[in-house]
Amino acid sequence: MENNKSSDVRKGPSERFHSCKSYLPMAGSDEFLDSISTLLWSQSNGPHIQSVQTPGGTAAIRMAADTIHSICDESERSTAWVSSPTWGNHIKILRAAGFTVKQYPYNCSGDSFALQFDETLDKLKEAAPGDVVLFQGNCHNPTGLELTDDQWIVLYEFCQDRNLLLLVDMAFVGMSKGVDEDFRPFQHLADLAKSAGDSTPWFFAVSYSKCFTMYNERVGSLSIISNSAQLSRDLKAHVKMTARACYSNPPANGAQIINTLLGNEELTKKWKQDINLISLDIQARRDLFVSTMAKYLPNQVPFAIGGESKTIFMRIGLSSAQNVYLRETFGLYNWAHHFNIMTVDADRMEY
To answer: What pTM, to 2 d.p., does this model score?
Structure first.
């Protein structure tokens, strides 16, 4: 145990934590922002990307929405688009920020479990210039459907051509393909933004609750990406003013812990390995669920093809009566059309 001490992500210089009770700046800890900028953007990092620390991913989305709503003309700030289905809080956050919320279809095509991307874009052609278009970055909640790298480029160019404000929400960092691979498509979009002549800025909201198990520490970030360092700085200034009127400044402790981990190359490597193991565990449970379902309920396998998706949630096509039976008989709590695969242990899947 002693030999592994330096590589244990749970260990760190605890004497640093709680050592100072001063307020953080409105934008958050500079050390933390430097660390997560390297994590998120790697070689794509630069002054055209400006970030702030937020109290969780929810606040990051809300700060983006409030900022956009406050600086856009009245005629250009009325509507925000989210997927159907989506995480329920997306709609509440955007409505609270003053937007009318509309939804674009986010469905799979038959048994292939691939996103019907053309259908999604066809609906978004109804969006007006200045509308906000929110997409989940990976592990879509609740479907697990993800855009391919090429589809992210198409979506980005689609929004640029129509002057739509793309807002990407990533809550499941590393739990699809691993930390570095999950961020890679957005690094490429940041490169495209930097090289563009005249571009519409886009926003990247990240929650660190799951990937760092920082739920009650409330740690998130919001990045603003454009082709102009000055434009990104100006938008960051607006976000800071918005934060001042909302929560003033973010909490310090969780950011300190994350910064300590990311500031140590060995701990960072171990953390990424651990996240990858979680991703593999999620996929193994999904695969086992699908094979077990095929054994006992073969008529519902088309719904269970969700085993190919990339999130803890799984759409399985159960009826309301079946959901009630699972809840009352086995204590398996689920929603109308999906449940959390992590609530079922692999060695009890057949039961």
So the answer is: 0.87
Integer Cα distance of 273 and 257 in angstroms: 18
- Is 87 labeled as catalytic in the residue annotation? yes
Look at the block and give the residue holding tokens 């739920």: 215
The residues, any chain, with a CB within 8 Å of residue 216's CB and separated by 6 or more, are none
Q: Which of 66, 81, 152, 169 is catalytic?
A: 169
How confident is the model over 5-41, as pLDDT tens digits? 444 555 444 445 555 678 888 898 999 999 999 999 9
Q: Of residues 87, 152, 202, 271, which has the active-site annotation? A: 87
DSSP H or E segment with residue 165: strand 165-170
Active site residue 169: yes
Cross-strand bridge partners of residue 102: 81
Told to judge if 161 belongs to the known catalytic residues of this protein, a careful annotator would answer: no
Each residue's pLDDT tens digit, 143-195? 888 899 999 999 999 999 999 999 999 999 988 889 999 999 999 999 999 88
